[in-house]
Every structure is written in C-alpha cells, then in structure tokens.
Amino acid sequence: MRAQFVLSEIGVGLRRNLTMTFAVVVSVALSLALFGGALLMREQVSTMKDYWYDKVNVSIFLCNKNDAKDAPECAKGAVTKEQKDQIKTDLEKMEAVETVHFETADEAYKHYQEQFGDSPMAGNITPDQMQESYRVKLDDPQKYKVVATAFAGRDGVQSVQDQRSILDQLFELMNGMNLVAIYVMILMLVIALILIVNTVRVSAFSRRRETGIMRLVGASGFYIQAPFIMEAAVAGLIGGVLACGMLLGGRYFLIDGGLALQDKLLVINFIGWDAVLTKLPLVLAIGLLMPAVAALFALRKYLKV
C-alpha cells in the first residue's frame, strides 16, 4: 500500500467534510476532557482522603455546667474530675487509640477565637461556655465506632464526634460533581460516536465512484477502508490533543494561576502535575482508537467491499 496515496486520500476526505470533521474534533475533545477531568477529580478526592483522614481526630466533648441545664445527655451535671480521669484511663487502654490530648475550656476558647474571631457572635462567647474535650487520634480512622460505642452516653460525656463526618460531606459533594462530569462525558461520547459514523458515511458516499473503481481493479477491502479509518483517527487524535491542552490549562488556571486555589485554599492538598501528565497518554490513546474503531464498524455497514 502506497503511503502517499493513503495520506492524500485522508487530506481529501478531511477537506470534503470540513464542517463535520470540525464537529467530530470538538465533540471528541470535550468528551475526552471530561473523561480526564473525572479521572483527576477521583484522584483528587482520594488524595484528600489519604491526607485528611490521617489527621482527623475523634472528639469526646465533656459536659459543663451550661450543658447540665440544656442537654439531656448532661442531666446528671457537669463532668467531675473522677469521671475525666476514668475516661482518660479507658482511652489509653484501647488498642485502637494512638494518642489522647485533653483540651481545656480555655484552649477551646482560644481556638474558637482564632477561627471565628471576626464573627459577630464571637464577642458573646466566654471561656466558661466552651466544653472541655478529649482529642483522640486513632491508628485507623475507620475504627471510630469502637470509641463512639464505648463512650457515647457515659456520665459526663455530652457527645462523641468523628471529624471524618464533616470531611465526608465535602467528599460526597466532590463525588457528586464527578458523577455529573461522567454523565456529561458519556453524553458527549455518544454524540461524538454518532458524528464519527455520519462523517464516515458521508465521506464514503461522496467517494463511492472511486471506491467502485478500486473494487473493479481488485483492491483489497482493507486498502479501500484504510483512508476512511485513518481520517476518523486523525480527527480523533486532534480532539485528543485539544483535550490534553484543556486538562493542562485547567490544572494551571485552577490551581497555579488564575484562580490560584493552591495559594487560597492552603488546607487542601491538591494533586500535582504528575497526576495530570500520567493521564495524557490514555486520553490520546482513546482519542486515536475510539474514532478508528467506530469508523471500522460504520464501514462494514455502509461500505460494502
């Protein structure tokens, strides 16, 4: 097979169906950009989970004199020194517990002022209103229920809270956004496949005279089909390159420049460039192979060779 002939046929096909080729490139680029974005979002969520789950604590809040009036769990009164000592002793005996830190009401008030000092409500809070608590770090964050079961409802304990529950709400939101991106990606992928099939069909119909002559002179089926398949592959590859550019540009704009989330949201451990670069070969491979396979099946139906 002469490579020059195949390349010339690819150029002719792309020029004849320039509008549809452009539509294929755009739809492939958008669908693959969404695909890559969904992969990166999943990796971002996984990175954040690994980073934060290792840092979160289980908090055992103790009853104070204000809770004794308002909270049913503290109906027996504020926590006593004996109860605090017993809670600490029991915590240190648990195999799941790695470290135990006691936070006084004054320390809790100081942390509250650091975080919410600008809030109008901050001036109405006094140290005696803050709760003493034990901050418990577990060797495995998944073992939260062991601590919760052992201390929830105990005399002197107002509540047991797992900080993971707060993070899980954020992760659920991010996973929801990821699912939306996947659904849109699937829709764009279907549209791209339909456009590819139609483009190949129109291209084959417009060159039916040439393909008829090639059949008469004994050209093989693959020799006739190759230009159409490669046209689709080239269009898909261009779309894949554009998708890679979108992923690189999106990562730079959102994290490093433009919005500069990396500088504004210091509490989030963002994925690095290596995570993006490792996804690009997969995006390019799908961009190249998906249109080629779609064209191959389209030709079996619309181009009888």
TrEMBL record:
Q: Name one GO biological process term.
A: cell division
Localization = Cell membrane
**One protein family per Pfam:** FtsX_ECD
Domain (ABC3 transporter permease C-terminal): residue spans on this chain = 184-301
Gene Ontology cellular-component terms for this entry are: plasma membrane
Supply the InterPro entries for this chain.
Answer: ABC3_permease_C (IPR003838), FtsX (IPR004513), FtsX_actino (IPR047929), FtsX_ECD (IPR040690)
Could you describe the subunit structure of this protein? Forms a membrane-associated complex with FtsE.
Per the entry, what this protein does is: Part of the ABC transporter FtsEX involved in cellular division.
User: What is the designated name of this protein?
Assistant: Cell division protein FtsX
